Amino acid sequence: MALNGEPPPWDEFDSSAYLKDNYVVLRDDDRQIVELVRDFFVGATFDVPLKGVDVGSGTNIYPALAMLPWCDHLDLCEYSAQNVEWLKNEIRAYSDSWDPFWDVLSEKPAYQAIDNPREALLKRAQVSKESIYELPADTWDIGTMFFVAESISDQAAEFELAVRKFVAALRPGAPFAAAFMENSTGYDVGALRFPAVSIGLSDVRDLLAPCTTDLAVDSIGPGSDPLREGYTGMILARGRAAAE
What is the CATH number of domain 10-44+51-241? Predict the structure, then answer.
């Protein structure tokens, strides 16, 4: 998916290893992100039902679950062939490890209204192999992008273009949440090494400010039990896509 140079081996991405390393247990930093995203979407005002998108889903379904109460259709766009197959299997009846994430979401009535989130996700979600750089513009009413744009290559220009393509894929006024690894030096998945762009909170804010409204950007520290080496925390942005 990288635009310049040799792309990382995305189709060799070890989905099971990445899931085990990142999402089998609900970490405190992910809990904070889930709470912030939940509260942002609950507090937003929009006409329902919506067409939602999660860009670069990987092996993470909690962004899709966060949008579930307001969407009658959810596109899960992923570039890695391995992750596409993982997602197709996972949404058929998602694993029990996601229940703690749903428990955090369902502290709010909007989520409590969904009696069976597994059934709702299966009915509403559609998985497709897509490049973030080729997303159609002005298409979705609500969107998420978690730990994607900064984790494609080590080129800042590709990170910036990915963020702009994500926002451009949303209709004007669409609420969104986007998460980023802070100061990432790259990451290992199984036996393979994948690149990253080292970014900070100001980089995210400066990039999003011209193309969004109601922007809020927060840094979430790694706490006493960092996910891995080579990063300093996580960054979460919430806002709305601006009209061009």
Answer: 3.40.50.150
* Model pLDDT, residue 231: 97
Taking 70 as the pLDDT cut, the residues of the chain under it are 1-5
Token pair of 217 as six digits = 């950007």
Give me the sign of the Cα torsion angle 78, 54, 226, 2: positive
Tens digits of residue pLDDT in 79-101: 999 999 999 999 999 999 999 99
Q: Are 142 and 108 in contact (CB under 8 A)?
A: no
* Cα 229 to Cα 185: distance, rounded to the nearest angstrom: 9
Residue 193 confidence (pLDDT): 95
Query: DSSP secondary structure string, 147-203?
Result: S-GGGS-S-HHHHHHHHHHHHHTBPTT-EEEEEEEET---EEETTEEE------HHH
- CA pseudo-torsion sign 152, 155, 158, 160: positive
Alpha carbon distance 93, 123 (integer Å): 11
